[in-house]
Every structure is written in C-alpha cells, then in structure tokens.
Design brief:
Elements: E1 12-17, H1 19-22, E2 23-24, E3 29-30, H2 32-47, E4 51-56, H3 59-66, H4 76-99, E5 105-110, H5 112-116, H6 118-133, E6 137-142, H7 156-166, E7 171-176, E8 197-198, H8 203-208, H9 221-233, E9 237-242, H10 248-253, E10 259-261, H11 267-277, E11 283-287, H12 289-296, E12 306-311, E13 318-322, E14 328-333, H13 338-344, H14 352-356, E15 370-372
Helix pairs in contact: 3-4, 7-9
The structure holds glutamic acid.
Glutamic acid (GLU) binds near residues 142 and 144.
Length: about 375
C-alpha cells in the first residue's frame, strides 16, 4: 500500500470550490455555514505556513437568481451577465469570511489566454506570487464576462489545475459533490469502488470517468481527470474529495476516503522540463563570466551580466543562455521584450527606471524561469 502524503507536507495548496457546494441549489443562496467552516480549514493551512489559493466558482449560480433567469442551461450571454452580477457578491463574501481570520483576500479573474500566452502568464504568475508573499489568499475565478465560448475553460476544474501549475503549487484539492473517482459511476453501479490512489492516468482510469455536468457545476468526472493530467504533469499532486460536509479539508486529514492522483515529479522539475523541452527558443543572451558564476550559485540573471542579445523575442518567450565562448548553458523565459532588453543590457538594475522611463523588474531571467544544462 502506497504511503500517502499528509497535508502538512505541502507548501502551496490550491483549493477548488464548486458552485454546487457554495450555493444552496434549492434556495439559490450562499451556504454561509459551510463556507465559514471551510474558511476555518483554509486558515489552519495558512497558519501552518502554507501558501493557500482558492479557485471559487459560484458567480453564475449567484447571479442568475438575482437576475431571475430561468432554470436550466443558460445561453452564453446570459451566463456572462449572471457572472457579472454574481462575481461581486462572491468576491465580497470571500473577503468577509477570510477577514474573520485576519487573512486578506485578493480577487483574480483569469481567462484561458492568461494561462496560455506566455507574457500574460508571467504577469498573472507574478501578481499571484506577490499576493502570496504578502500572505494574502488569492481568490480566483474565470473571467466569465469576457471569455467567449471558443477560448474559455468553462469549468473551474481545469482552470484550477492550470492555476496550480502556473503558480508551481504542490497540491490541488478539488472539493466536489462526490468523494473521489470510482471504478464506475456509483449512481449506476452499486459495486463501484472508490479508488484511494491513482499513480498514473491510464486509458482505464479515463474510461472510469463517466458522468456529466449539472445545471450548477460545469465539471463532471471527465474534467476532473483532465485537471488531474494537467496538475500531475506540472508536478502537483491532486485530491478529489467530498466537499458536501462541514470542514472538508479537516476531514481529509482525519482520514475520510478520497482519491489522490500522485505526480511523478515536483513543480520545480516539471517547470524546468517544460522550459528545457517544450518551448522553441526565440533568440539568445550572451553572458559574462561573473553572471555564469552567479547562475551556478542559483541566482537570477540580471541585465548587468549580459553582453549581447540576438533574436526577436517578447517578454515570456524562451531564449538560450550562452557564455562568452558561445557554449549553451541553458534556457529561460526572458523578462523583457527585445527592444527594452537591448537598452538595459550591461546596466545596473538600479538604472532600469531611468533608462526605460518606468520601473522594471530587476531580473532579465528569473531563476525560477530558467533551466540550466545539468539541472
Ligand atoms: N466560472 C463559473 C462560475 O463562477 C463556474 C465554472 C464551474 O462551475 O466550473 O459560476
């Protein structure tokens, strides 16, 4: 039997909360007591020192009541209108409930493109990192009001998984209206059994994910398995757990059955592998011996250590890093567009503001965005 990790092992935890948990389906009002108890759980993880992020659905479910929209699946424009109304209430309630634990909430609304396009991806990642540095809890949802059908997640399971990999989280918890993955849909097959751990997502595992979405929550088991693929490839373990009880995270810790999807790697290795292997370099930076030494000590690459740049690249693109003899040291995601980069290479980071006219980032390539040969 595999030894399962314990929640206190994790440093950065994303918790996804589905609409059907947050919003009472009959009365279409918020489940306040439930949310209050969940915030106790989140505050406990936070007090232990973990970075905590919430991906919260519920804007459409809350907004549709206010707008008195009919029951059933909504047209895209109606769900966007409902989201616009409901998101205000949703953000307020999270801020209120977390403030009872002296925790600050920060609202982040993302679109699919924010997690796909590298420049926006880096921006979102940095904003979230700043919030976490300041010990806030980012409360994230899809920006439903502007996302059109072709370019939206539509479900927060996959959105949460993308967020988890974007912020290098080591754990994603999907709180759901089911307690895990079963060998068959349990409402159809009484012999179906809960799988406590899934080491690898095989075609058999995918086949087990029948089930569909409800009026309130978009994701069925299918999107949860898709989320598990994204999260585990990005180096995060993922849990599907029953959220229909009070203090669902405490209950996981007390041993309530749930499903763990284990990742074979860590967020750092997965990210380095992604940078090293899947991105086409758009150019290179040549660095002096001092910078070579700094990188070998695990530091970031500053503009001062760069002697030359080549290529056409934008912030977030992948570039090669070469030494003065042309040897390739690795690659990384560059922090500046080529025209800005060319103005600040060789300069001290203190001069960036006077050269560019705006305060810029100190690093040309942050060490978290770098994969060196032999890493
Ligand atoms: N973003 C949607 C909302 O806030 C929810 C999507 C989902 O339930 O997965 O209502």
């Amino acid at each position: 039997m595999t030894q399962l990790p314990v929640l206190s092992d994790f440093k950065r935890i994303v918790v996804k909360v589905g609409s059907s948990l947050l919003v009472d389906q009959k009365a279409s009002v918020l489940n306040r007591d439930w949310l209050k108890a969940l915030c106790d759980d989140l505050a406990r993880l936070h007090q232990r020192g973990a970075d905590v992020l919430v991906v919260s659905s519920g804007s459409i479910a809350l907004g549709r009541t206010v707008l008195k929209l009919p029951a059933g699946v909504l047209r895209l424009e109606d769900s966007q209108a409902a989201a616009a109304v409901g998101q205000i209430a949703l953000a307020r309630i999270w801020a209120e409930m977390l403030s009872e634990h002296q925790i600050i909430a920060g609202q982040i609304l993302v679109t699919f493109t924010d997690t796909e396009e590298r420049r926006r991806y880096l921006n979102a990642r940095e904003t979230i990192a700043r919030l976490l540095d300041m010990r806030a809890i980012p409360v994230i949802n899809e920006n439903d009001t502007v996302a059109t059908s072709e370019i939206r997640f539509g479900d927060n399971d996959r959105l949460a998984a993308r967020v988890a990999t974007m912020v290098s989280a080591d754990l994603l918890i999907l709180l759901s209206d089911i307690d895990g993955l079963y060998t068959a849909p349990p409402h159809l097959d009484p012999k179906a059994e809960l799988l406590p751990v899934i080491q690898r997502i095989t075609p058999q595992i995918e086949a087990m994910a029948g089930g569909a979405a409800s009026e309130y929550s978009r994701g069925g088991m299918f999107t949860k398995i898709e989320a598990a693929k994204i999260a585990t490839t990005g180096g995060a373990h993922m849990i599907i757990a029953d959220g229909r009880i009070l203090n669902p995270i405490e209950m996981i810790e007390k041993g309530k059955p749930c499903s763990w999807f284990l990742s074979p790697s860590t967020p750092i290795t997965a990210r380095k592998k992604w940078i090293a292997g899947s991105l086409e370099p758009r150019g290179y930076v040549q660095i002096d011996d001092g910078a070579v030494k700094a990188l070998s000590q695990g530091k970031s690459l500053l503009p001062a250590g760069i002697t030359h740049i080549e290529g056409v690249f934008a912030r977030g693109d992948c570039v090669l890093i070469r030494d003065l003899r042309g040897a390739e040291l690795g690659r990384g995601l560059i922090g500046y567009d080529v025209d800005q980069a060319s103005l600040i290479i060789g300069r001290n980071s203190r001069d960036i503001e006077s050269v560019l006219g705006v305060p810029g980032r100190a690093e040309m390539i942050h060490r978290d965005d770098m994969a060196l040969v032999g890493d």
